[in-house]
Specification:
Strand content: under 5%
Number of strands: 0
Oligomer: single chain
Distance between the termini: 55 Å
Length: about 200
């Protein structure tokens, strides 16, 4: 059963633009990017000497929860998304990110202490959802462009290989014909054995 699940996964070089989010490097990059976004948000709130560590901790927990949930769901849905066009796959990913963000924001505003949630639930949910969609759209666009560049590089490499093979074939044929021509001066039975 375990090997069957691994075989049903899409291969990393499959040409699909959404990276394999089950892989450790992709998860690490996503967690690091999310943490950087929280850090920049907290840094923008006020002067550096009054850096709010509590906001950083709560924001990190909130954003990492959304990030890891989205990664887990996209990891599982990647095989299904490969059948979609890039536009439809992107829209499906953005809807998933929006849904996870809305659900997490509602849970957070319901159970978080009142001093941590200083804005209305609707405002918090809409703001978080818009931010998540913008960040997810940027990351998906980056992944799509990376996949296109890799695909172009593979195409160029294949063209070079084809050109090299086309140049080698005439040389091989020329050398073979020269070898046969050189055998014509020897007795016919030896020439036929050599050919």
């Amino acid at each position: 059963m375990q090997s069957e699940s691994r075989n049903s996964r899409v291969a990393p070089g499959d040409g699909f633009f959404i990276p394999d989010l089950c892989a450790a490097p992709a998860v690490f990059f996503a967690v690091l990017l999310a943490e950087l976004a929280v850090f920049l948000h907290v840094l923008a709130l006020g002067p550096l000497r009054t850096f709010d560590w509590q906001t950083m901790a709560v924001g990190s927990l909130f954003v990492q929860w959304i990030t890891l949930l989205c990664l887990a769901l996209l990891c599982r849905l990647r095989v299904i998304l490969t059948g979609f066009s890039p536009t439809l796959a992107t829209l499906a990913c953005l809807v998933l990110v929006a849904g996870v963000t809305i659900a997490t924001s509602l849970v957070f505003s319901r159970f978080a202490p009142a001093d941590l949630v200083d804005v209305a639930t609707l405002d918090l949910t809409v703001r978080n959802t818009l931010l998540a969609i913008v960040i997810a759209a940027i990351v998906l666009r980056y992944a799509y462009l990376q996949q296109r560049v890799a695909q172009q590089q593979r195409s160029e490499l294949q063209l070079r290989l084809d050109a090299l093979q086309a140049r080698i074939r005439p040389h091989f044929l020329f050398n073979t014909l020269n070898s046969i021509a050189s055998l014509l001066t020897i007795p016919p039975d030896r020439a036929e054995a050599a050919i």
